[in-house]
Amino acid sequence: MLSRPDGQLVIVDTPGLHRPRTLLGERLNDVVRSTLADVDVIGFCVPADEKVGPGDRFIAAELRDMRAPSIAIITKTDKAGKQQIAEQLLAISQLGDFADIVPVSAVAEDQVGLLADLMIARLPAGPQLYPSDVATDETTEARIAELIREAALADVRDELPHSIAITVEEVNPREGGADLLDIFATLHLER
Fold first, then answer.
1. How far apart are CA 147 and CA 158, in angstroms?
2. In this structure, are residues 46 and 16 in contact, taking their beta carbons and an 8 Å threshold?
3. CA triple 24-157-34, angle to 5 deg
4. What's the whole-model pTM score?
5. pLDDT digits (tens, 9 = 90+) for 42-82
6. DSSP states of 68-93
7. Distance CA 70, CA 74 (A)
8. How many angstroms separate the CA atoms of 56 and 8, rounded?
């Protein structure tokens, strides 16, 4: 969540839309479509350092049917050169009619504020949903589980992203370690 005087963004990260190969994949797509039908702005993320592929084209086609405006977000611009970013801007612009296309780098904090400005400008007027000092509705364990899942997926190429689930068993402060934790977790696989 991002609370500012001009608005509050509640960011919902969904599983990625994909061509389902299993019943689980179909159900996950249903969850994503249901979630997207309830939001006010959609952020479509494509990394700057990867070519646009069939999955990106599939998602862009799905977004055309949504009522909410879509903003294409070219992420990880810190990992790409100017030429690569320019090529990505062109490739993304050809995928659909996006309300905006914004290249950003969260690591370098480049254009993240602009992205927030563009999203907040597209929100309808309404009351703040969460107190200003709240940054997330996720538990610490849920955030840790997602970080572990992302790390596992970075090296797993033959499994679908949703086929890995994490259960955090224990989180203990490390003795003598300044702000370090020992985390014990179980990785659950579909197969």
1. 19
2. no
3. 30
4. 0.76
5. 999 999 999 999 989 988 998 998 899 999 999 999 999 99
6. S-EEEEEE-GGGS-HHHHHHHHHHHH
7. 13
8. 28
Q: What are 187's strand-pairing partners? A: 166
For residue 166, give the nearest of 139, 147, 191, 138 by alpha carbon: 147
Give the model confidence (pLDDT) of 32-50 as tens digits. 888 888 899 999 999 999 9
Cα distances from 12 to residues 91, 122, 182, in angstroms, run 25, 16, 28
Q: What angle do CA 85, 87, 93 make, to 5 degrees?
A: 100
Helix (H) or strand (E) holding 174: none
Tens of pLDDT, residue by residue over 1-25, are 899 999 999 988 876 777 778 887 7
User: Is the separation of the CB atoms in 102 and 71 below 8 Å?
Assistant: yes
89-101 pLDDT tens trace? 999 999 989 999 9
For residue 13 the two structure tokens come to: 């990260």
Integer Cα distance of 96 and 13 in angstroms:
21
132's tokens: 């200003």
